[in-house]
Structures are given as C-alpha cells and as structure tokens.
Structures
1.
Amino acid sequence: MKHIMKRAKCLVCLAVLAAVMFTSVQLFPAEAASGSITVTGMLSGGAVLYTGDDLQAAFAAAERGSVVSIDRFITLTSDVVLTTEVMLTNTDRITFGDFRILLSGDGALFVNSRLRRKYYDALSPYSTVEMMEEHDGYVYYLKAQEPTFGSAQLTISRSGEMLGGAVDEANARVFLDASPAGISVNSMLPLVSMPAQNAESVTANVQGAAAGLVSTGSVLTLSATNSDSSGVASRSYTVVVVGDVNSNGRIDAADANQIACHAAGSVVLSGAAFDAADANRDGSVNAKDAVFICEKYLNYEGYTSPLK
C-alpha cells in the first residue's frame, strides 16, 4: 500500500466523470442490466463490468474511474473494501447499519452527497480517510500517516554485559556502562527501545562500532516506518561507553592511563572521550576516575555501576 492515491489529477478525472454522470444520467441506461447495483467501466469504453446486489462484488469488479450506480435500495451485511478509484451514485439508497466502506490501497470514492463519518474508514491503521469538495461532489481518499517519535524517550534495559544505561535527550547522548570486555552491537540493540506513533516497526542500528563492539563516539540511530508512508522518523544519539576513553569498545589499563594523563595535564580529553573519562559520573575528570576504572577491570565482580 505504498502508492496511496493522492494525486490531484486523479481527483480531477473523477470530478469530470462525475459531472458527466450526474448531468447525463441516461448515458448508461439501468435497463441494460439486472440487479440493484451496476458497475460501468470508463476505461473499458462504457462496458458493464458488474450487475447484481453485492456491493463488495461490485467494488471488486470495478476498474479505476468506474461508475458504481445504486439503482435500487440495498442493505450492507458486512464491511466492504474499496481498493480503486470509483464514483458511487445514489448513496442514499444504501442502508449501512453498523457497516462501513473501508478504503485500502489506491481506494478513493467520489460521491455527490456527503457521507456520514461512521460510514467510511481506512482499512489500514497507518492511514486516515480525508475528504475534499470537488465540482459539486465529495472525494474521499486515503492519506498516509507519517511515523513520528514525538516526545518519546529512549529506554535501555540491563543484561549481563550491560550494567547500566542513561539517556541525555537534550544533548542526544546515550551513556552505556558495559562489561570490561565490551558489548557487541548485536547484543546491545535488543536492549534499546523507543515507542513511536503511526509506526509499523522501529529498528535500531549502530554506526562507527569498533570491530563489532559498541564504542565511545559511535552513533545509535532508531528509525520508525510504516507500510503506508514513504516517510521515516529517525532519532540519533552519540554513544558514550563509560570508561572507554580510547574508543575501542573495551575498558582496560589504557583507558585508565588516558584519564590519569588528563588529570595530570599532559593530555586534554574533550567531547565524547571526556564524557567517557568521567567514569564515576560526578561531572569532572580526575584521578578518582582513573582509580574507578582500574577497580572495574581488576574487580569486575565487585563493581557497581554509577548508571544504576
């Protein structure tokens, strides 16, 4: 359902055909057919494509631009689905009861009298039915709803390799506290989630990983899509793995040395590396962070994450 009918020229064609139909009601005489419903194909040179009493069967037989005439009163016994563009005449002869016309695919309906809202809907949960007035009639067509994250928050679950996590939405940063050996991209992705509106699926990926490990400076991106819309909602975060100062995805003596050098003034850390060096999450980088990292990789079993 990726090519939903929204093109203005289609609406204009329907409008012109409707004008012909509504002003020349004898163009396709009802006497030529037997049944409550007649479907006349405009692309087929005026051929009668269906005659009978089943509106669903009439819609199934219709081609784009067909005229579906309700010649006598009918009662719907179920919802009916329309997947193409048609003109429907004499809708006042339809008894809907609790049933509706559902638009799907390229479904579009041109009528000369406005339908009550409860008598139509979109079959897909990712589209809505829009109405516009056109040449003394009304066009009902599908409009895809764009996926969006809105004000949703990213959440991070814990695992054996993921000791804790935090999200700084304002600065688009994700802080992860992984085991000293690091956490692989494949292990980390199922731990992150974000709800989205009008989304059929939300996927996550990491770019800039170090040899398959999530590393400081890599980028986590979440994307929301649906099958009705070509639009994609996305949200990206810079990843900070606590203690992974050198961005190799692991936490070891090399990282502790970098932190100590920064504390001594021989090295200046900045950006994501600085955030990773603030291992105890107190807002500064000093010798305490170097000691904290050493304790982590030397006594992992006794380590407590500052992100818990």
Note: The first strand starts at residue 37 and ends at 41.
2.
Amino acid sequence: MAFGGFSPNASTQPVAEINMIPLIDVMLVLLVIFIVAAPLMTHAVKVELPRAASQVDPSPQEPVRIAIGPDGEISWNGERVSRAGLTVHLREAAARSPQPVLHILADQAGPYRHIAEVMAETSRLGLSRIGFVTDPRPPR
C-alpha cells in the first residue's frame, strides 16, 4: 500500500490506489441499519374496525352503457343515437337521483376525439360517475 508523505525527498507521484476502507465502513453501517429496520416494516398495525348495521339498496341501478364505434357512431344501452339524442339522454340521466353510472365502451381503432367529445358532454351536464369497459383477455 502506498502512502503519500510530506518529506521533500519522497517521490511526488500520485497514488493510483482506491482507498476501500471508507466504502466498506459505509456499507457496514447501511447493513446494520437495514438489519434493524427490516423487522419493523413487517409488523402490521392491528386495527379493530367499527361495526355498523346498514341495509343493502334493494334496487341497484343498472349502469348506462354508451358504446362509441370507430367512426364515431354512438349507442345508448344498445340503441343507436345521434349526438343530439345523446345530449337528451345525458340530461335525463343527470336529473335522476342518484345519478347512474356510465360505462363507456370505446372501439380501440377509433380516434380519441370521439371519446373526448362524449366525456366533455357528460362533464358539462354534471355526470361524474364514468367508467371505461375493457376486454380482460390478454393481448395476443
């Protein structure tokens, strides 16, 4: 191991070795920290949740299915409608209490602007419970 010195007759060449001692010290400190902290992360806080009696809604609303085709055609629960007809249906849905859930079925080949226009119209009319329906099968 080469050490530098302050004597004038010593060679003034730079030391070409990496000092590994500080690196090893830091790694050992980190190892100790992880050994101490790991058991603390595995313990869960046991919580006893409160119990409450509630009744199930006897008439759950059926979701409204809005299908958007690749060329922008729109259907409301399987019935083809125009843009004006969609607005009428959305107004009626917004007036209901509670508001229904809207399921949007959009063709993957269609432009996004058709979906954005339908979502903008639903937002403008105050409908906020919107979900997108996808095919759960993995892609081929």
Note: Residues 27 and 55 are 58 Å apart (CA to CA).
3.
Amino acid sequence: MCSTLQAKPLSFLLDRNEHKALNSKDRFKLTKAILDFLETHYKGMTLSFWSEPFENIDFEKRITNILHWVDLAIQEHQSIYPVDPLWVMSQIMAESLFCELAISPSLAAGICQFMPSTAVNPYQMTIAGSLPSHRKPPYVATDLANSLNDYRNLVKQRGQYQRDSRKDARYNLDDALQLLAEGKSAKAEAKAQLARNEKIKEMNMGIELARDNYISYIETNVATLGKNDIFGHSKFFIGFDERLTYRKPIFSMVHMLANALRVRNGNILTAAAAYNAGLKRTWTNETIYTNYGMLPGIEETARYVSRIVANYEEIALRYYA
C-alpha cells in the first residue's frame, strides 16, 4: 500500500493576526521549560558570560523577572507586529545567557547586549559615562568615565587615516615582483606601507586601551556601588547604565524585533538577523525575496541565528510537550 505524507510546511513566518500575550499559567510553564533546558545542557559547567558554575546562579529568579517584562513588552508592541515570547527568550539566551552584567569586547552590555549608540539613540537609555554626574563622587574610577568618547574618537581617527593613506596600502607582492623583473626598486613604496601598518597598529593599541578602560569603569562601579546585584541595588543601575537592567532593554529589543517583523512580513529569521547586523543588511532587491528579506553573508550573524533556532527548538519541545 502507498501512504500519503501529510503536508506540514516548515515556516518561520509569524502570523500578523496572532495575539501573543501570556497568562500566568503560560509564564510558569515557559519558565519551567527554560530552566529544564538550562539544567539539561549546563549543569556542572562554568558558564560563559557569568564565569560562574551553573549551580551558583539563581536562574529561576532571573527568568521569572525577564519573562514578566518580555510579556509586557510584547503586549505593548502588539500593534506593530506580534512577537513570539519563546523566540525572545531564545534570543536573549543567545545574546547573554540571561546574564544582566554581560559586557562584550564590542562594548555591548546587558541581557539584550545593546551597543552604546543604539541604547542612547533611539532608545534613550542612560549608559555609563553619559551623564555629568558619572564623572564625580559617589562614582568611582571617574578618570575613566570619558573612555567611551576616547574610544569613539580613536576609531574615527583610524578610519580617516586609513582612507587618507589608502594609496600607501596598494603596494603588493605582484607589484614587487614586477619591479624586480624590470630591475627597479620600490623602497619608498615599501617604506610607506610599513609605516602605515605601524601607525594603524599603534592606533589599534590606543583603541583597545580605551575600550578596556571603559569596561573597567563600568565593572568597577557595578562592583563598588551596585554590589553586582541588580535586584538589591536597582536604583544605582537605573541611574548608571540601563542596559544592565531589564525593562528598557527588553522593551527596546521587542520593539526592534516587532519593527523588523513588520518590514520583513513576519520572517523571524531575518528579524533576528537584523537585530545582530542591522535591518538594512537583510534587504535584497531580488524580486521574489524582497518581501521577506535575506540573511546577510556575515559569519557572526549566521552563528547567532543558528544558536537562536536551536534554543527555540529546545525550549519549544519542553513548553509544548
């Protein structure tokens, strides 16, 4: 006998008309699903972002609080586009493993890993060093409070120098071989390129120092004044760097996802990629695919979206069981 397979299309397109709010029973069930997923895969391990053993972290307290704000944010932005709460939690897990004090080498911070520029504009978050009060007591390490501006200025200077000296970078092996074959010398060109490389190396060292100083400024104040505890010292965190809190970053993340879903016709994959790489990078002029967007050819973004998909599958298997 022949059997007919029942068609069940694989779809990453979210329904525009589906209401995504959770009731208390849903939130409890989703919290348990995430906790089970974490325990299954991370028990006995020292975790990235946290630099702590799994058993030392109160994940239940954190996930309960995060999910509360995720649910409110989804309801707030429902009119833009409904966002799946399981996807948001999967994405936060990929960003930070729910670590509110996570700071990346790129200076992204918090559970949603907001970059300083995005946090301030358009989402109007207070970030470390952005207020005059951050440069005087009771804040500490105030000599480092301007490090973010130093970092930005140095990056800008490096970019300008690279553009201005582009001609000095054109000398390559083929050019050298051609000149040697002709019995000519290109010492001046070689020296110019070596000098350019040395200058850029020096600039990179300055940029790295400014970046490390800014991270040190944040971490020193968080440890000294915030006691590394956003629950017990929430007033400090709100006044110092809101990226390290819950409400504003979560509302901002959900807003970004809802807007990307609206623009990309519900394609959650391109919406997630847009959060990592920027919405413009998910656009394509290929007629068939313009409505849904494309995943950009960026290795970091590919890894990022892959992690979210895996997180979502693991959480959904438990939640819908």
Note: The two ends are 32 Å apart (CA to CA).
